[in-house]
Amino acid sequence: STTTTTTTPTTTTSTTTTTTTTSASECVSVNVRDNFNNAYSGNDGSRNFTTVWSETDFLGGGATDGLAKVENGVFKLQGVESSVSDKKSGIRREVDLTGAQEVEVHALFKLTGSLETNDRVIFEASKDGGLTFHELRKLDYKAVRDIFLTVRIPLDASFSVANFVLGIRVKEGMSGGDEVFLVEEVEVAWKDCDATTTTTTAATTSSSASSSTTDSCPPPVCHCHGDAVVRISQDRNDPCPHCECVIPQSSTSSSSSSSTSSSTASTAS
């Protein structure tokens, strides 16, 4: 029998998807801070402010003079009588809070002087780069102490924008000579959490599949009689071999019988 085996390669592609999620417990606490040791450009936190402090000051003078200034590593803020100017002294600075979570504003401050009920300073914030501001915390004569105090102001998620601006300014009054608002340090703190990351990896595996084609022919069985001999032959139109019984030509045969060289005695397949 004859067996023919054909091997055909086949390719199987499998895709493995690995999803990595950063949970809240893996968030990192970060902050921007200014200890006012470098005029209006201090960056003392783990991140940097987007800009330096810009000021509003009736008297001008920048970081070294006027109603808003830095003196001996402390920011100092005073007001002016409303009859002189309606310009409210203050400073503001921008921070990128894109995606920030649990944002808080912290400050170490002190109010000094003979403050009256109309003397107020505020912390404020903008969600649109400084076009509009929202009052975060108001401080008045009730906060007057001889020591620095800490204020903590939590912000909701709506303030987590790329152009967040923090402001500190006089809201009203603060025009007396001894009425001063001091800030030793100011900080914006938040949690930085990575977004969910999905990584897809495609793996290709090759394998071979075999297919077999078998051409099976039974062995020929021949029975010959007399002087006949077996001859195996195969027809071009028949894939299986078969046998024939053939009487060989004899040199002693008569001329009458020599006209036929051979004859078929019997055939079996």
Protein described:
The chain has strands at residues 2-20, 28-34, 54-56, 68-71, 74-77, 90-95, 101-112, 120-126, 134-139, 149-154, 164-172, 180-192, 197-215, 229-233, 242-246, 264-268. It is an all-beta fold. Strands 2, 4, 5, 7, 10 and 12 form a 6-stranded antiparallel sheet that branches. Strands 3-6-11-8-9 form a 5-stranded antiparallel sheet, with no helix packed on it. A 3-stranded antiparallel sheet has the order 14-15-16, with no helix packed on it.
Summed up:
The chain has strands at residues 2-20, 28-34, 54-56, 68-71, 74-77, 90-95, 101-112, 120-126, 134-139, 149-154, 164-172, 180-192, 197-215, 229-233, 242-246, 264-268. By secondary structure, the chain is an all-beta fold.
List keywords for this structure.
269 residues, mainly beta, six-stranded antiparallel sheet, five-stranded antiparallel sheet, 16 strands, 0% helix, 48% strand, disordered C terminus
Task: Set down the secondary structure blueprint.
Elements: E1 2-20, E2 28-34, E3 54-56, E4 68-71, E5 74-77, E6 90-95, E7 101-112, E8 120-126, E9 134-139, E10 149-154, E11 164-172, E12 180-192, E13 197-215, E14 229-233, E15 242-246, E16 264-268
Antiparallel strand pairs: 1-13, 2-12, 3-6, 4-5, 5-12, 6-11, 7-10, 7-12, 8-9, 8-11, 14-15, 15-16
